[in-house]
Each structure stands twice: as structure tokens, then as C-alpha cells.
Amino acid sequence: MIEYFKKKKWEIIIFLVGFIILYISSYLLIGGPKTIEGPISIFIAFCLVQFLKYRQFKKDRKKH
Which end of the chain has the least Cβ crowding within 10 Å, N or C? Predict the structure, then answer.
């Protein structure tokens, strides 16, 4: 798992920084997100995609 995080660390960092910037800007521009489910859904979807990528990474690693 450490190898996967080393390989994908910039992708994860860019997502988290972008997510935080957009969340803060929503508070500054419109007083916060209109629903709490929006940001939570985006974060859960990102985690799900990373989980599926990790499974594929493990499968590819076993083949080599």
C-alpha cells in the first residue's frame, strides 16, 4: 500500500488541495455549500476511485 501512495501522492494531494480551496471559496461566495451531501459525495467518490485503482495496482503487481 505504501508503494501505491508513493506512486499516487501527487494525485491525492492535488485533489485534497483543490477540494479545500473549492470548499472555502463556496463559503466566501455563497455562504457555504447548499447541501452537505455534495462535498461528502465527491469525497466518497474519490475514495472509491482510489480503492478501485489500488485493487488494479495490486493485480498488476502480482503479474510482474
Answer: C
What pTM was estimated for this model as a whole?
A: 0.74
pLDDT in tens, 1-46: 888 888 889 999 999 999 999 888 888 888 877 777 888 898 999 9
Eight-state DSSP code of residue 33 = -
User: In what helix (H) or strand (E) does residue 1 lie, and over which residues does it extend?
Assistant: none
DSSP state of 6: H
Which CB contacts under 8 angstroms, 24+ apart, belong to 12-16?
12/50, 15/46
Q: Quick one: average pLDDT of 47-56?
A: 93
Instruction: List the grid coordinates of 45.
Output: 467518490
